[in-house]
TrEMBL record:
Gene3D superfamilies in UniProt: ABC transporter type 1, transmembrane domain (1.20.1560.10), P-loop containing nucleotide triphosphate hydrolases (3.40.50.300)
Residue span(s) of domain ABC transporter: 377-600, 1024-1258
Species in which this protein is naturally found: Gopherus agassizii
PANTHER family xref list: ATP-BINDING CASSETTE SUB-FAMILY C, ATP-BINDING CASSETTE SUB-FAMILY C MEMBER 2
This protein's name: ABC-type glutathione-S-conjugate transporter
């Protein structure tokens, strides 16, 4: 495989298949078995404590199951590998003693020397094999542990979590749990056995040291014992900081997720600076915590690097001082030095293991809390609430007869969607019960679309029955859409259905339900996102008495009055309770709330949403967007997209599965290459400029000083070793003489001083490096964030959110924590090897000749391995992305998946994609072992050569220098190994700098503020002149608007109508310069909008958008993120938006926390909040973009009344969704194919018998006065 990877880019097919016992399913079943046993045990323990009436309650310790599931069998295998290694390490040190005594004794036979050299080589070889076997087993254990946790978290979320508990944690936090936290467990598993093997190695070394130095060694042990509490204090502090920083990281990622989801709103309202400031503040706290953490780490490294040296100084000083006869000779000194060096590894890894344990345990606790809170059981005690402590449960008693069509109506927030959720079992059942007989299909209010083909979205795991499929597609009015999509029903739908309009998504969601052929259909307002014509078609063909679903039980939540007479039963909800129930005629006769509603709005019969059409009308225009584009290429853009003829798709995500591998990108390698190969072209040669860019971010001054301090540290290290070598020769100089006290004191003093200098430089270097790394983190994150908020909207339309989030999560984490560690380790290893080779060459100059062939061998191993390793890491990241995408998709579509009962299918799919990732991880582990065995062989050859040369040239050598040469050579094996590992890791990780840079160089939209500012109070009149205005989505594409020319007078009310793709939304995007002009101009109150800054323009206009987007934070922050308005103004706006009573009822009022994406408010309430936003801005121009699509008629009436009264002196442009909303406009603009075809008052247009009058007839409007509004 290494050869294959060196010759060509590796593909998944080139990797080995997993063994049966390493597959996700097997691992998860073992994990579950052990977990259940542990939970039972913990429950028994809990009961026992309760019986004792103990005050403290025990929580089930989920971690035990995790440990046992994997560790018992591995422990048995690991122990035999690790124990001999510990003994062999000590044996090598003793062999040095024999070699030194051989060199010092001129009478010894030559064969003895060769035997010792060979013994040293064999010992080192066996030791290497044992160690690599240990690492192989540990890495496989870690991989299994990560898999078990990922699968368990996914299973818990998809099968066992009530939606109310899932809401406690944001999607960002749960994805973090699966990505970063499971990785920490994997990393820990590698070194967990050091907890017992390190003390064993330390004990063996001390025993052998006792033989050498006698009781003097106790001085060294005393120093060690003193260092333990210092480390404990550092570890505890580090843990606290890490815990705090985890919260900052989660918080930053949560806000980033929201920013990217609601980026269009931020741009339309010019809110980017407020959110940039919020993220910046969290980042400052995060970096402050990181600086404290890395400083503590630097101290920890300093203490443990000094430990062996301090121990040796203490031991040697005491040894020579306690008795005048004790003279330090080469045998004693270098055997001891070797044993002290053996101490260095376990003592260095022990704190790392402890700090890793700290991180894992802090994350483990969080994980446990999440998993436990997800394990809430719904008890059948009918009242329902979203959360246990909510004060407004729904009280509902309903009996729905089989085969009936039941309509559920009510005002916004009356609990219609909650009723559906309760039936699905997605709410807390406080009292009563629900009986459901038969299978369920569910159409949510906001359609959930999978990242798969359109066909897969409809089939949703069912077998294909072609005739039935065609019947469903036709009934759901999808045939015209399929003609428009580049690949028909095989078109790949992007993340969250990004390349479908709202109406198309809703119809796909409905088609999925119809195709599933269930017994009970729960339809949560599926007609709100489609226009009147299509709504009527869907009701006739699918939902109504003569539709495909006739004879099925259907619960239809709707705001459309026109369909109610054709339903079997109507349920009217008021404030979460059923106020009326019965047939249409019965309720009318009763004269209750329902009858009042009808008498108020009955004249709007049939006036259901109007704006979003499909190609139902003859000559329907295609929806102009990047969907139809077969090939998109911006010469310098990092986002390239090519739609392949055999399977069209839109977005090449990082790991889009099969479809993505088929999609192509023009790579730097020339020609058309698959997406992953194109990424590979970028990653094949990691350019030196990347390192320079990172060092530039660190700062040249910092970088230079770090290098100087590290070099000085190694110079002091060599100096102390050469001094020791010279010191040991005193034993020969003063043979049979009394050792002078002054000489002894001078030796100890200089040795100690050199060690102190070495320690001081080490600490200075580490602290400087942490400062520099923090500076780089700050600079790179700031550049990335600042640029992402300034890129044009088209970038977000063509780039999956997951990929941008990945930059802020994984890549920034790499820049923050991984790269600085890798750089430090690389520098340490590199300088360590150079200093060791220099010392060996000083002892035996001939060794320089041996260095050359060994270096060549080393170089070739390095080249072969690094290219393969990087590709395996690439495959790992390519196969890892689908895991997170799938997880995110599952969380957002949880209620749909459960309603259809498809949890098992999603679990199996998760198992498959985790197994795909396992394959690349396993191959990477094996490739590491392949390299390590060969590298250690090179290292062992260095040891053998040094020993052999010492034996051959023993007549010219002092025993001190031989001891120095061989004990240094013994050190080099591990260091060589680490250098390659660090080189490879650094190469892999430094790519994160490139990925961050790539997004910092995406072309920006126009300046936010320019030198030319509009006059104060602009626009004061609200006059808009559009002159020959042309627009295209991107350079090189067709025009979307073809030369629009019109004047809109001050305070005029203009309705904009047209079929799908006519250019209505494009027009609003042009007013806000989301799309820039390709020709012509728009002038508002005498100012050409293209000459001023974007923020000056966007802050002066107001829009109520189609999708009401809210951000997590307080209600006040959602209305006024810059704190520009007083509380009185905000309350006034809420009153006008009919939300004041609702907000007054909330315990925290304006400080009420809005959850992620505003999930704890109904869609109608969110829409009213958007109205309140608009009321606060008080600008002279208001744009309403299909704003009343998701609201019931009553709320719609409230919104329209408020707009008419409060914006009476403003210019209002309404993108019509329900035609009745614009019938009282001064003028109506009718768009078709990007041109204005009619522009006059509604009365005149109705008389002209043109396009507008046709649409009005479809909506049941005969005259401009036919509407109450």
């Amino acid at each position: 495989m290494v050869l294959k990877g060196y010759r060509k880019p590796l593909e998944m097919e080139d990797l080995w298949d997993l063994k049966e016992n390493m597959r996700t399913q097997q691992i998860l079943s073992r994990f579950d078995r052990n977990m259940r046993a542990e939970v039972r045990k913990a429950r028994r323990e809990l009961e026992r404590r309760r019986c004792k009436r103990s005050l403290c309650e025990a929580a089930p310790d989920h971690r035990n199951g995790l440990g046992k599931a994997q560790s018992q069998d591995i422990l048995v295998l690991v122990t035999p590998s690790l124990s001999p290694h510990a003994w062999l390490v000590s044996l090598a040190a003793l062999t040095i003693r024999l070699l030194i005594s051989f060199v010092a004794d001129p009478t010894a036979y030559a064969w003895q020397g060769y035997l010792y050299a060979l013994l040293l080589f064999v010992t080192a070889l066996v030791q290497s094999l044992c160690l690599q076997q240990y690492f192989q087993l540990c890495f496989v254990l870690g991989m299994s542990l990560r898999t078990a946790l990922m699968a368990a978290v996914y299973k818990k979320v998809s099968v066992g979590t009530p939606v109310s508990s899932a809401r406690t944690y944001t999607q960002g936090e749960t994805v973090n749990l699966m990505s970063a936290d499971t990785q920490r467990f994997m990393d820990l598993a590698t070194f967990i056995h050091q907890l017992w093997s390190a003390p064993l190695q330390i004990a063996l070394s001390i025993i052998f040291l006792w033989w050498e130095l006698g009781p003097s060694v106790l001085a060294g042990i005393g120093v060690m014992v003193l260092l333990i509490p210092i480390n404990a204090v550092l570890a505890t502090k580090a843990r606290r900081i890490q815990m705090k920083n985890m919260k900052n990281k989660d918080q930053r990622m949560k806000i980033m997720n929201e920013i990217l989801s609601g980026i269009k709103i931020l741009k339309l309202f010019a809110w980017e600076p407020s959110f940039e400031r919020q993220v910046g503040e969290i980042r400052v706290r995060e970096l402050k915590g990181l600086l404290h953490f890395t400083n503590l780490q630097a101290f920890s490294i300093f203490i443990f690097s000094c430990a062996p040296f301090l121990v040796s100084v203490a031991s040697f000083a005491v040894y020579v001082m306690v008795d005048e006869k004790n003279v330090l000779d080469a045998q004693k000194a270098f055997t001891s030095i070797s044993l002290f060096n053996i101490l260095r590894f376990p003592m260095a890894t022990l704190p790392l293991v402890i700090s890793s344990l700290v991180q894992v345990s802090s994350r483990g606790r969080a994980e446990r809390r999440r998993v436990e809170s997800w394990a809430l059981l719904l008890t059948p005690k009918s009242s329902f609430a979203w959360e246990q402590d909510l004060s407004r449960p729904s009280r509902v008693t309903l009996d729905i007869k089989p085969g009936h069509l039941v309509a559920v109506v009510g005002a916004v927030g009356s609990g219609k969607s909650s009723l559906v959720s309760a039936v699905l079992g997605e709410m807390e059942n406080l009292k009563g019960h629900i009986n459901i007989q038969g299978s369920v299909a569910y159409v949510p209010q906001q359609a959930w679309i999978q990242n798969a083909t359109l066909k897969d979205n409809i089939l949703f795991g069912s077998d294909l029955d072609e005739a039935r499929y065609q019947q469903v597609v036709e009934a759901c009015a999808l045939l015209p859409d399929l003609k428009l999509l580049p690949g028909g029903d095989l078109t790949e739908i992007g993340e969250k259905g990004i390349n479908l309009s709202g109406g198309q998504k809703q119809r796909v969601s409905l088609a999925r339900a119809v195709y599933s052929d269930a017994d009970i259909y729960l339809l949560d307002d599926p007609l709100s996102a489609v226009d009147a014509h299509v709504g009527k078609h869907l009701f006739d063909q699918v939902l109504g008495p003569d539709g495909l679903l006739q004879g099925k039980t259907r619960i239809l939540v709707t705001h459309s009055v026109s369909f109610l007479p054709r339903t079997d039963e109507i349920v009217v909800l008021v404030a979460g309770a059923v106020s009326e129930q019965g047939s249409y005629s019965t309720l009318l006769a009763n004269g209750g709330a329902f009858a009042q509603l009808l008498s108020t709005y009955g004249s709007q019969e049939g006036s259901t949403p109007e704006g979003e059409a499909t190609g139902m009308w003859a000559g329907a225009e295609p929806r102009v967007s990047f969907v139809q584009v077969p090939f998109i290429e911006c010469p310098w853009s990092p986002v390239l997209c090519y739609v392949c003829p055999e399977r069209p798709m839109l977005l090449c995500g990082e790991g889009r599965g099969v479809a993505c591998r088929r999609s192509c990108v023009r790579g730097a390698c020339g020609g058309w290459t698959p997406w992953d190969a194109a990424t590979e072209c970028a990653a094949l040669q990691v350019k030196f400029s990347l390192y320079l860019r990172y060092l530039h971010a660190v700062g040249w001054g910092f970088s230079a000083w770090v290098f100087i301090t590290y070099v000085a540290q190694y110079a002091a290290f060599m100096g102390s070793n050469l001094w020791l070598s010279d010191w040991t020769d005193d034993s020969l100089r003063y043979w049979n003489q009394t050792y002078p006290t002054s000489q002894r004191d001078m030796r100890i003093g200089v040795f100690g001083a050199l060690g102190t200098v070495q320690a001081a430089f080490l600490l200075a270097g580490a602290l400087l490096a942490t400062r520099g790394a923090i500076r780089a983190s700050r600079v790179l994150h700031q550049q990335l964030l600042s640029n992402i908020l300034r890129v044009p909207m088209s970038f977000f339309d063509t780039t999956p959110t997951g990929r941008i989030v990945n930059r802020f999560a994984k890549d920034i984490f790499t820049v923050d924590e991984t790269i600085p560690m890798s750089f430090r380790s690389w520098l340490t290893c590199f300088l360590g090897i150079i200093s060791t080779l220099l010392m060996i060459c000083l002892a035996t100059p001939y060794f320089a000749l041996i260095i050359i062939p060994l270096s060549i061998l080393y170089f070739f191993l390095l080249r072969y391995y690094v290219s393969t390793s990087r590709q395996l890491r690439r495959l790992d990241s390519v196969t890892r992305s689908p895991i997170y995408s799938h997880f995110g998709e599952t969380v957002s579509g949880l209620s749909v998946i459960r309603a259809y009962g498809h949890q098992e299918r999603f679990l199996q799919h998760n198992d498959r994609i985790v197994d795909m990732n396992q394959k690349s991880v396993y191959s990477w582990i094996v490739s590491n072992r392949w390299l390590a065995v060969r590298l250690e062989f090179v290292g062992n050859l260095v040891v053998f050569s040094a020993a052999l040369l010492a034996v051959i040239t023993r007549d010219n050598l002092g025993s001190g220098i031989v001891g120095l040469s061989i004990s240094s050579a013994l050190n080099i094996t591990q260091t060589l190994n680490w250098l390659v590992r660090m080189t490879s890791e650094l190469e892999t990780n430094i790519v994160a700098v490139e990925r961050v840079r790539e997004y910092t160089e995406v072309e920006n939209e126009a300046q936010w503020v320019t030198a030319q500012r509009p006059p104060p109070g602009w626009p004061s009149k609200g006059e808009i002149q559009i002159t020959d205005y042309q627009v295209r989505y991107r350079p090189g594409l067709e025009l979307v608007l073809h030369g629009l020319t019109c004047d809109i007078g001050s305070t005029e009310k203009v309705g904009v109508v047209g079929r799908t793709g006519a250019g209505k939304s494009s027009l609003t995007n042009c007013l806000f310069r989301i799309l820039e002009a390709a020709g012509g101009k728009i002038v508002i109150d005498g100012v050409d909008i293209s000459t001023i800054g974007l923020h000056d323009l966007r802050q002066s206009l107001t829009i109520i958008p189609q999708d009401p987007v809210l951000f997590s934070g307080t209600l006040r922050m959602n209305l006024d993120p810059f704190d520009q308005h007083s509380d009185e103004e905000i309350w006034k706006a809420l009153e006008l938006a009919h939300l004041k009573t609702y907000v007054l009822d909330l315990p925290e009022r304006l400080s009420h926390q809005v959850s992620e994406a505003g999930e704890n408010l109904s869609v109608g309430q969110r829409q009213l909040l958007c109205l309140a936003r608009a009321l606060l801005r008080k600008s002279k121009i208001l744009i309403l973009d299909e704003a009343t699509a998701a609201v019931d008629l009553e709320t719609d009436h409230l919104i329209q009344t408020t707009i008419r009264s409060e914006f009476a002196n403003c210019t209002v442009l309404t993108i019509a969704h329900r035609l009745h909303t614009i019938m009282d406009s001064n003028r109506v603009m009718v768009l078709q194919a990007g041109r204005i075809v009619e522009y006059d008052s509604p009365e005149r247009l109705l008389q002209q018998q043109g396009l507008f009058s046709t649409m009005a007839k479809d909506a049941g409007i005969v005259s401009a006065q036919a509407t109450v509004l």
